[in-house]
Sequence to fold (401 residues):
Amino acid sequence: MARLSEELLKRAQALPGLRAGFERSVVASKAQGARVYDADNVGYIDYQGGGGSAIVGYANQFVLDAVRKVLGNGVPDGFHVPQEVDLAEALGKALPWVGNWWLCRTEDEAIYQLLQWARETTGKPGILMLDGGARVRIAPAAADSGSFPIREVAGWHVDRIERELATAGGRLAALVVDPLMSRAGVIPVPDGALASLAAACREHGVMLLFDERVSGFRVHRGGAQALSGVTPDAAVYGGALGGGFPIGVVGFRQGIDEPVHKGDGRMPTPHPVSLAAAEAVLSILRNETFYERIEERAIQLAAGIEGLSSRFSRPMTVNRAGSVFALYMTAKAVADCRGARRADATTYWRLAEGLRGEGVLLPRQPGGAAFLSSAHGAKDVDETLAACERVLLRLHQEDLP
Fold:
């Protein structure tokens, strides 16, 4: 460990979480474009992507300019601000199926408020989720009261989900679908599955909610809704929308009565900085070539990894949707959570640790969702594949009998 990192670790005696971070990943002092830098200014090509938030790269100049303008105006927290209207109008252009918006401080708050609204609107307590969907962090009071039952069903097994809807529909407020099953990395939705689930939800009086905290603005400019053509009753966005600043958004489809927040008091307004950053990100995403460029880099990376897998006879499978991908150390197709769990976790850890030593950051979790940004260039991907080749060669030599 280099000198400044060692000093930082010694000073962090009262911060066990930070000390553990030294073992799992780098402790970042700055980030620019596609790279993260540690305390000793060692740079890493980053595919952790701030949990998916850095779709336009780190320290994007357009986003920073928008944020500086807001900070210069000195608007205090806790007021409604014009940026709310600006963002709602920009969101309406990207997601024209939405009729009303809730703007929330975080994506976790947004999903929680949406589930509460679904329960209050339908008068039914149950929530059904796919077993690989992004986690929902329920407020402690709700969890302790037992009033927020959430059940999971195997995805993408459409027949099982439909049976669950038919059996428990009278007690279910909503089916929550993460279109990537991102807790298991990336498990892309099979063709026609969302349309089938939407029809089953309508038949049994269950709301269909899309959890696009990871997929939103990453798989397509209009998210999974635009990609599939299936319109949910509501959807949650966060992650990439904020460009690294915390924000959550709930969009309700046109035709739904104006949604009422029935919590105790007014829903907290996002900080003006987050609102300005989100509008700036949407402005960047409107560029016609944005998704073409990021798709090219994603194809380049996935094809390169698959080529290395064949060259070193090392079983590796890449699942990808837009700029989100997951690497599984297995030769078998990964189509559900069971397949993701069967992948070789130990070898993935060895690969990820080796790549970290070569200046490349993958998710620490085996098969975890990884992200490209518009700041990743062809040269970054080439460097990544060269590093991967060196690590795979070492693993090959270590595994020789």
About this structure: The two ends are 32 Å apart (CA to CA).
